[in-house]
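pls read this protein.

:::
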Amino acid sequence: MKRLALIAALLLVSASAASAQDYGLPELHTIKTVTLSPSYSCRSQADVQKGYQGTALFLSEHSKRRNSPDLLFNGACRSDDSFQSSTAGDDMAFLVDLGAELQLEKLSAGDVFQLFHLRSSPGSPYSRHAQSILSQSVKVVPNHTYAVFLNKRDIRGLFVFTVMSHTPNQQVEIKYAVKQYQIMDVRAYSPGFDWEQKNSAAQTNPPVEKAQRGKQN
């Protein structure tokens, strides 16, 4: 019995490893560096037609196949550059600027949430970091560290990165570490999502007994 359980466990681990390879999932807690260049919106129309090219970071082969970047270096020519995490459709990913003087090597997932709470709470001694708010687009600032909360239809994750160098509109070098990355199996969802759709009161039908009584009277 124990032998069968061991074989089953090994098969499960093998299947999980094969699945991870199929999706090209990133390794967690490992610091890597990448240069994104140039800013996405400061390109010729011909280059824009070629797609994201070197302007975006894809953490997995899955996001690359979907053409859905996990991070985009953006900015129109002669304007401020920014990072974006939501790039299309119903993406609801957010970034937060955690400020400067943070060591990526010592930053855990728990630290990210603690720092965000401290630096966004009114009255906190850390609240001077007014940039510590969730946003779909944040300004590129050298030496600042950012956290990205990935929330897409089939991807959920968390990664952190620090800006090592930045040449406006031309390139940005970052070092990053992925803290969580999951490919989700969407079994069902409520149809009709629309970024501009407002809300209305629910439509209710009168109870059948009350309607029948009214007809009798």
